[in-house]
Amino acid sequence: MKIQSLHSWDVTPQEAIAIQQELRSRVTCQDEFRTIQQVAGVDAGFEERGSITRAAVAALSFPSLQVQETAIVRRPTSFPYVPGLLSFREVPAILEAMAQLAYPPDLLLCDGQGYAHPRRFGFACHLGVLCDLPSIGVAKSRLIGEHAQVGEERGAWQPLLDRDEVIGAALRTQRRTRLLYVSTGHRIRLDTAIELVLQCTPRFRLPEPIRQAHCLASE
């Protein structure tokens, strides 16, 4: 898997913000992919009071959602917890885990924000740009934006708005479960992202690739 080295990870929070503002122009919100046969979920947890990052990748077949490969990496955490800058804390370890996969996935599902971010460059955008892969942000909580009330049925959603801009969607993946916040990461349209997330959530609230990665990262 070819991973682009576009910047240093040894940066201050102020430098990290400048990197986000520079790289966000590389994000494309259009569908730029062929047939999806493998979807990878990525997640990170922390050990030893946050001093160790535990990154996990779970690659599943699509659309059958059978686990094909998994990878786990532990490495020292080198960036502080700063809301809006979580990719600088988690992505270095996730890149190491992704490098262990035998084959690059066709799509990344990220446990975090994508375009629904103050600088339009959340975790999923950052990882998608570095790997040059289609990616989707699937967050369990809202970082910014407002939305209308979402129906209780599976598949109901409302646009997530920041002022007048649609930055994502508040989506209900299972009946009467809590919402997920879906947004473009890279090389994918929002409506396509919603459809794919629903295809990856046949039983549980979380998409199965992210659920599998979360279990590995949280063991």
Summary of the model, kept short:
The chain has helices spanning 13-23, 86-98, 123-131, 190-199, 208-218; strands spanning 38-47, 52-61, 67-76, 107-110, 135-139, 157-162, 165-171, 180-186. The chain has 219 residues and is α+β, with helices and mostly antiparallel strands. An 8-stranded mixed β-sheet has the order 3-2-1-4-5-8-7-6, with helices on both faces.
Fill in the keyword field for this structure:
219 residues, alpha+beta, archaeoglobus fulgidus dsm 4304 fold, 8-stranded mixed β-sheet, 5 helices, 25% helix, 27% strand
Q: Which structural class do you get from the secondary structure elements? A: alpha+beta
CATH-wise, what's the superfamily? archaeoglobus fulgidus dsm 4304 superfamily
Distance between the termini: 26 Å
**CATH-derived architecture:** 2-Layer Sandwich
Name the poorly predicted regions.
none
Radius of gyration: 16 Å
CATH topology: archaeoglobus fulgidus dsm 4304 fold
Highest-level CATH class: Alpha Beta
User: Order of SSEs, N→C?
Assistant: HEEEHEHEEEEHH
Q: How much strand?
A: 25-35%
The rough form would be described as globular
In total, the number of domains comes to 1
Helix content: 10-25%
| Sheet with most strands | 8 strands, mixed
Please state the average pLDDT score: 96
Count, helices: 5
Q: Within the largest sheet, what's the order of strands?
A: 3-2-1-4-5-8-7-6
Number of DSSP E strands:
8
